[in-house]
């Protein structure tokens, strides 16, 4: 979801930098790449350790909650995403959401996009689901998410869309194909496990993966 369906990675960066600035620290892009895809308490610990912040995990999570109540409802849908979701839904392709977010932050993020997210019938919130024992780069979230599909597909029949290095590693570890649409600043050589890397979802061609092709030009 974050950075792939919605522009919430940008909002996370704003929020984390606000906290870091209080202590004279900088939330760098390198640190951001290392935490993307982690569960809430995992990324909180990573940021605290990475920036040497005088906070506990609980204190950091509390600080971010106030920030995100303001920022997340401002989220916007990334280019090409709504077209693909509607296309897959209209063609009867089972689709779901696997996000490391908690159900609480998910609700804030989709506040103005409920219609689109209702099309993603099967949902897994990594920071709230007890079945997701470990965050990305471990494969837990994708295996749990795939198990929610009625036909219980084999991993090789699942296609994952990701924007983070941790997410790509998680999908690959799960035995699934993965299309990566990263931040343009990311060194793509850091994600050799990706099946395909694109600049934008606008560039995705469903037929390359055996899915029904678009009938209208983008």
Question: Would you kindly provide a written description of the structure presented here, covering whatever features stand out?
Answer:
With 218 residues, this protein is mainly alpha-helical. The chain has two domains: 8-74, DNA polymerase, domain 1, CATH 1.10.150; 81-209, Rossmann fold. The protein contains nine helices and five strands, in the order H-H-H-H-H-E-H-H-E-H-E-H-E-E. Helix 1 packs across helix 4 (57-71) and helix 3 (40-51) packs across helix 4. The relative contact order is 0.14. Its EC number is 3.1.3.96.
Outline:
It holds the Pfam family Hydrolase. The protein has 218 residues and is mainly α. It is 39% helix and 8% strand.
User: Which CATH architecture of the largest domain?
Assistant: 3-Layer(aba) Sandwich
At the first level of CATH, the class of the largest domain is Alpha Beta
Give the structural class: mainly alpha
Largest beta-sheet characterization: 3 strands, parallel
Distance between the termini: 22 Å
CATH superfamily of the largest domain: HAD superfamily/HAD-like
Family: Belongs to the HAD-like hydrolase superfamily. CbbY/CbbZ/Gph/YieH family.
GO molecular function: metal ion binding; pseudouridine 5'-phosphatase activity
Protein name: pseudouridine 5'-phosphatase
InterPro entries: HAD-like_sf (IPR036412), HAD-SF_hydro_IA (IPR006439), HAD_sf (IPR023214), PGP-like_dom2 (IPR023198)
